[in-house]
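Technical note accompanying the year-one report. For the benefit of new consortium partners, we illustrate the data format agreed upon in the data management plan: each record pairs a sequence with a structure-token string. No post-processing was applied to the example shown here.
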Amino acid sequence: TPSLKKPVLPRRYPCQIPGCDKVFQRRYHMVSHLATHTAFKPFSCSEKGCTSSFRRPQDLKRHLR
């Protein structure tokens, strides 16, 4: 019987930061990962009394759950 699995994409997008050996299958994931190498945290929690800030919107969203 033929396999119903999607073909595995080759890993093609390595992180460009020296010393980081992460490699991604999608360019979007690599670009999102690059934010983890910066000190800039533009996404702040709006809950009263919380001072947490995040580099990526998905990290803030996970924090708010």
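Partners are asked to follow this layout when depositing records. Residues 18 and 43 are 26 Å apart (CA to CA).
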